[in-house]
Amino acid sequence: MSLFNLDRFRFKGDEGTNSTPKLKKSEVSSDSASPSSDKENKPKTTKQDHKLASKKPLKNKVEGGDSDEDILQNGILPQRKAKLYKTEMTEHSDDNDDDGHDKVDDEDQKIETLQEMFPQRHRSQLLELIRCTGTLEGAVALCLMQYGDRAASRQRKRDVLSEDDDDDVEKDEDDLSNPAKKRRAEVPEDSQESDELKKKLPDQDKELLRDVLQEHDWHYEDALGALRMFADSGHSNSSKKKSSQPKTSSSSKAKKGSSEQKNSSTPSLSGWVVKIPSASVAAKAKQGESSKAKDSKPVEKKKEKKVPPVRRKGEDSEDEDEDERALSSGGEENDLTDEYNSDDEAPVNSEQQQDILKFFQEAAAHELTLISGCSAKRANKIISLRPFNVWKDLEAMFDRDNGLSADLLVGCRVVLKERQVVQQLMGKCEGIARKMFKDVTALIEQGTGSTKQPAILNSSLRLQSYQLIGVKWLTLLNQHKLSGILADEMGLGKTVQAIAFLAHLYQQGITGPHLITVPSSTLDNWVRELKVWCPTLKVLVYCGSIDDRKYLRRDILDRQVDFNVIVCTYRSTLGTDFDRSLFRKLKLKYAIFDEGHMLKNMSSQRYRCLMAINAERRLLLTGTPVQNNLLELMSLLNFIMPSMFSSSTSQIARMFSKKSDEESSFHKDRIDQAKRIMKPFILRRVKAEVLKELPPKVEQVEACPMSAKQKDLYTSLFNKLKRAVPGEKKELCNVMMQLRKMANHPLLHRQYYTTEKLAAMSRAMLKEPTHFDADPVLIQEDMEAMSDFELHNLCLQYPSIHSHKLDTHLLLDSGKFDRLTQLLASLKEKGDRVVLFSQFTMVLDIVEVLLKHLDHRYIRLDGSTPIAERIGLIDDFNNDPDIFVFLLSTRAGGQGINLATANVVILHDIDCNPYNDKQAEDRCHRMGQTRPVTVIKLVSKDSIEDAMLRVGQEKLKLEECMISSDMGEESSMPEDMALLLKVSMGL
Ligand SMILES: Nc1ncnc2c1ncn2[C@@H]1O[C@H](COP(=O)(O)OP(=O)(O)OP(=O)(O)O)[C@@H](O)[C@H]1O
């Protein structure tokens, strides 16, 4: 707790933590009783008073580690934090659920995540996996690969379950909240599906087949597909081509000896299933631990595995040095080779030899570095030793004198197998794409009758033709039992298409229940659009306080309420265990996620929790489907197609996250691969294609020279930070933030309020009735953590320090404000209306000072604006042309809202992620806009913002590359929209 409210410089995510609503309408109404005048007279008084009254230094709170920032950065809270913050979070506006960095820091948290995903696994086992892989993602990958361990872990799970039984009073809720637990109990010992699978794959252990079936929700086809794909990928080379040979070659079996035989009860899918303990054992071996009896066997096995896979005939001695090196390289690299080389003791067959030879002979240096353990130096060495015409050349290469280890061969097999897996996956997807294309053609050729909008839609509203296509496409996906991503550009009416699709389902007798999860700022808009477009659908809004939701939950589960659609914010969907449990229990038909790009991180808890929602199919709506990298895209795809991707998540994650030269042909190939995978599942149209009548959007970058004082301050800050050269990424981020603050407004730092001034002010504060008995040292301590602008506000608030307030010229002293002043004057004169975004609520606070000073009428919406009031503010702006400026925080107002009555967007400060800026721009550039839209980006000249702009533009190029439509493609389809669909689908 602090003596003061140290809002400080709140970065985009922290705005929702302010419990004081910042609904400011001061210029709209002159009524002294209005919230605005309250605000004007007593800015943040309530909060300040509250904090001051507490008289404890803020430091305690910040250092306590459970700061608001922690909450926001962690996305969903770990249990411990969730409990601590329960009350506080519900008091706040439901906003900042919309992002978060989803960092999973400590082991406990990782274990919790893993346990939620793999409830059948024992905690200690998970801990071991986390420790040896070092990352949550690594542990997840191993778990996914460890089907073979299920039999053993099932027994352990049973034990755990029975322990859980007398756990606590929330047992019922808890049990139900864990469908895996429930399913466990329901797992039939034998089922028709497993019998069928056994017939198809007689070599496979029945237990394993049951587990894979269960992973695929007992969908026979999915399970078979996954088993085949991985059985093939893992084994095809040895089993298909040498059909007479058993899956694990006899020679290899012989080498594995008795330890392998003892493990024979462990089901195995050669080449796919990993012998679980290997990685952990490697780690243990590394630590020199003497393993327990049960682990000792795998240690031996691990050692055996370190024998290079390619050996000269008759050579079977192990190279101790190589062994040592392999073990000590540890971590992920070992895991990688293990995962792909459960049969790595098997000699390389002639076909594999050819592939490996080709790779070493032809791969570019950056491709060679994809091999685990192959540095750039080694890659160049390999290239210098070419040509490798025959296998013997390769063997000669791995001479010690060359500094190249035969482990590179193992790594090479991993890379090749990785590619093979992804290729097979793509093949499967491409098959679906072809089939879809055929069906789409047939459907459209049936005539216009099939393209009518659903009859239960409001007949006074008409879907645009491209929207009808969207609905048709969704219908097709549904017919094919596929989920999808509707990725139309912002403002093309994804909401409307989704509603029309639900209406169509309703007419087909699929009346729900469906779940629509949306960002807080769009909740009301969704409810309104549902009501306007399809009043037949009964809508239930699931949000409110924990208590509200508790009653709602009961009503839902007891069927006391009748609804077709539940609309819910991300925060409420994810909220507590009970909320999450509800959506696992409810058998949903469709789960729709608005702004679905929020599911870009497959390692995040948010992702996993939403993944656990019990819906037959999912639909993601996003205007910016690709953000930053291909792995994010894969996360989205994995989210909607879990059965297609689940078993290969780790391969995909690795394949798409590996760093390589972006200009390389290999990288381009990967983009191409991603495009092909995307085809059947993503529909994207851009405004230029389908909304021809929409006026253009023009972007204007305004390079704003800093004010003289600001420039000096920036330079000295820059030099100071440069001297303390930071190494860590975290520190670099902090440096960047410091510079951004200065580039935006000097008052975001503290320099005018010197230590001496603060000492005087803190003594003066004792005259305040709230602080007469406070310790001035503590007051000063708190003050020292505040920015100039915050201190200025404090001076306005307390008469005893009022004289220390800053002069107006200082408040307005920023290069951007100079430019803004000119811009606003000329825009007003032209009759333009402005939407101004900033990522920082404190910047908005200072912009308010400027707007008041210039006598411009404005309203404001940020994360602290109660959800219930947001739509009212949006309506106010859209209905009252006299409101000149709408101030919005990018976080709260950047997504999903409609402000087509404004024609100028000013981005006061650009985002590190250009997609956030794009989202914000398109609040105005959307259906309903009648005037050309100008987007003005204010960039502080010669500051860090220049670089941010450059990097952002580079990032945007990736999107063009990923989702470019091929407008020139020929089409045999009869109608324009058929061509459109084809183009949009990239078919
Ligand atoms: N066929 C239509 N007729 C009339 N108005 C429409 C139609 N389709 C969409 N709109 C309106 O256009 C605006 C933009 O639609 P919507 O909000 O659904 O777009 P969106 O693609 O979901 O945007 P975003 O990605 O920004 O969330 C809304 O006000 C919506 O009511």
- What are the distinct ligands in this entry? adenosine-5'-triphosphate
Between the first and last Cα atoms, what is the distance in angstroms? 58 Å
Query: Into which percentage range does the β-strand content fall?
Result: 5-15%
CATH topology of the domain at 420-685: Rossmann fold
- Form type: globular
Please report the number of helical segments. Answer: 49
What's the structural blueprint in terms of helices and strands?
Blueprint: H1 35-41, H2 45-54, H3 58-63, H4 68-73, H5 79-91, H6 107-117, H7 123-133, H8 136-145, H9 150-165, H10 171-177, H11 179-186, H12 192-200, H13 206-215, H14 220-239, H15 250-262, H16 277-287, H17 293-305, H18 320-329, H19 331-340, H20 350-362, H21 365-368, H22 376-384, H23 391-397, H24 407-445, H25 465-479, E1 484-486, H26 494-507, E2 514-518, H27 523-533, E3 539-542, H28 546-557, E4 565-569, H29 570-574, H30 577-585, E5 588-593, H31 605-611, E6 615-621, H32 630-640, H33 642-645, H34 649-657, H35 665-678, E7 682-683, H36 687-690, E8 697-704, H37 708-723, H38 729-744, H39 755-764, H40 776-784, H41 788-797, H42 808-811, H43 815-830, E9 834-838, H44 841-854, E10 858-861, H45 867-879, E11 885-889, H46 890-893, E12 904-907, H47 914-921, E13 933-940, H48 944-963, H49 976-985
Parallel strand pairs: 1-6, 1-7, 2-4, 2-5, 3-4, 5-6, 8-13, 9-11, 9-12, 10-11, 12-13
Helix pairs in contact: 6-7, 7-8, 7-16, 10-30, 12-13, 13-14, 14-24, 16-17, 16-19, 19-24, 20-24, 24-35, 25-26, 25-49, 26-27, 32-34, 32-35, 37-38, 39-40
The protein binds adenosine-5'-triphosphate.
Adenosine-5'-triphosphate binds at residues 461-464, 467, 488, 490-496, 529, 623, 896, 898, 922, 926-928.
Pfam family, one: SNF2-rel_dom
Region (Disordered): 1-109, 153-205, 231-348
Biased composition (Basic and acidic residues): 37-52, 195-205, 286-302
